[in-house]
Design brief:
The chain has 12 helices and 13 strands. With 450 residues, it is an alpha/beta fold. It folds into 4 domains: 103 residues, Nucleic acid-binding proteins (OB fold (Dihydrolipoamide Acetyltransferase, E2P)), CATH 2.40.50.140; 129 residues, 3-Layer(aba) Sandwich (Rossmann fold); 88 residues, no CATH class; 41 residues, no CATH class. The chain has a 5-stranded mixed β-barrel. It has a 5-stranded parallel sheet with strand order 7-6-8-9-10, sandwiched between helices. Strands 11-12-13 form a 3-stranded antiparallel sheet, with no helix packed on it. GO terms for molecular function: exodeoxyribonuclease VII activity; nucleic acid binding.
Length: 450
């Protein structure tokens, strides 16, 4: 009797062959809502497609999943195409998805919003990353189609507003399969172009969302974001907005407006230069006038103090001291010379030869010693004279006292020079630079000679 029973494997295999042999299940189009969506590390997608009354498990393998250009999510309505078959190991039938498109709002719009959200989270559109447009660009690069109306509008406007500005055209397809690679390549090429480009205008004329779609592709958006040159996006008309507009440093509503933003009107520049020149001239006149007034004040103050007269008087005092010191030294030398001559005469008066010889040797020694001593005295006097001169030129008694020194006097105005000159309980006057202090001696101590 058991021969009438089938194994689970045989039954499932039979059902699977039925599914695979049915031509209506080999290419099926289904509309539904995604739930239980999971993306495996392998790239395979697992999900459930459902409507109000039923649901079916579905799988989309990595090879097919790589072809979709949006991110499936739970709750999203989609249009799927594929086949229905049995997964024998699990004992259930499921939908093998070969193609998937968003349903309702349109595939391009969903793709636009998802990429915008992703790039926003990555900071591609952050305002802090925007570069500042130069005030006076010398060289402007234009990335657009070389034959469209946009390039004519941009070049005409730039030449009219700023004829001296150099224009460098980087031709690129702005729609179609080649547009994405060509636009991103030209942006990178402009970054290493020599001579250096100051501003880039990237854009095209108006068109449908499909025509403008290249400027929504991540490769183009990232090329704009990574550019070290400030970029003005000028895609389509004012109502058209692309992801390139968000990534660019500045967005212009039209290509013509982009050219107007990039350069200032030449007449405006000349007016600004003339205004600045006048302001600088007025500022310089004011500064010169103030400096002349200050110079006059300093000149009058210098004349009042008569520094030249003070210097001349000090020079004269120094000369007087030098002359007095020279006279003193000459007198000392004359006296010693006269004394030596007397000694010599007395020696000559002694008749014994040995005494004469001894006296002569003694005289020679004394003469040499005296000469040495006199020379040393002369050097010491000259050194002392130099110190006196320096003190005369550099200090006065009041200035010495200002540095912390003082004079001590008794009540009878006698200068105190030694501890022995004062007594306990005696009142003394201490002169400082700014006044007199009266003090009473409470104790005294002789300095140690050790």
């Amino acid at each position: 009797m058991s021969a009438n029973y089938l194994s689970v494997t045989l039954l499932t295999g039979y059902i699977a062959r039925k599914f695979s042999s049915d031509p209506y299940l080999k290419k099926v189009y289904v509309q539904g809502e995604i739930s239980n969506f999971k993306r495996q590390a392998s790239g395979h997608l697992y999900l459930t497609i459902k409507d109000e009354k039923a649901q079916i498990r579905a799988v989309m393998f990595a090879k097919a999943a790589q072809k979709i250009n949006f991110q499936p999510e739970d709750g999203m309505k989609v249009l799927i195409q594929g086949r229905v078959d049995v997964f024998e190991r699990g004992g259930n039938y499921q939908f093998y998805v070969e193609d998937m498109q968003p349903d309702g709002v349109g595939a391009l719009f969903v793709r636009f919003e998802q990429l915008k959200k992703s790039l926003t989270e990555q900071g591609v559109f952050n305002v802090s990353h925007k570069l500042v447009l130069p005030t006076y660009p010398k060289r402007i690069g234009v990335i657009t189609s070389p034959t469209g109306a946009a390039v004519r509008d941009i070049i005409t406007t730039l030449k009219r507003r700023s004829p001296q500005t150099e224009i460098v055209l980087f031709p690129a397809a702005v729609q179609g399969d080649k547009a994405i690679d060509e636009i991103s390549h030209q942006i990178k090429r402009a970054g290493v172009f020599s001579p250096e480009i100051d501003v880039l205008i990237v854009g095209r004329g108006g068109g449908s969302i499909e025509d403008l779609w290249a400027f929504n592709e991540e490769k183009v958006v990232r090329a704009i974001y990574e550019s070290r040159i400030p970029i003005i996006s000028a895609v389509g008309h004012e109502t058209d907005t692309t992801l390139s507009d968000y990534a660019a440093d500045y967005r212009a509503p039209t290509p013509t407006a982009a050219a107007e933003i990039a350069v200032r009107q030449t007449v405006d520049i000349l007016t600004n230069v003339l205004t600045t020149q006048q302001q600088l001239a007025q500022s310089m006149k004011h500064i010169i006038s103030m400096k002349n007034q200050r110079l006059l004040v300093h000149r009058n103050a210098l004349a009042a103090h008569q520094p030249q007269r003070i210097i001349e008087q000090n020079y004269q005092r120094i000369d007087n001291y030098k002359q007095r010191l020279s006279n003193l030294l000459e007198g000392k030398v004359s006296q010693q010379k006269f004394a030596l001559e007397r000694v010599n005469w007395r020696l000559l008066q002694a008749s014994p030869a040995d005494r004469i010889q001894r006296y002569h040797e003694k005289w020679e020694n004394q003469s040499q010693q005296l000469t040495k001593n006199y020379r040393k005295q002369i050097d010491d006097k000259r050194l002392a004279l130099a110190h006196v001169v320096e003190k005369i030129e550099a200090v006065s008694p009041m200035q010495v006292m200002k540095r912390g020194f003082s004079l001590i006097e008794t009540q009878q105005h006698k200068m105190v020079k030694s501890v022995e000159e004062v007594a306990i309980n005696e009142t003394l006057q201490i002169r400082l630079s700014d006044g007199i202090i009266k003090a009473t001696v409470t104790d005294k101590e002789m300095a140690s000679n050790e």
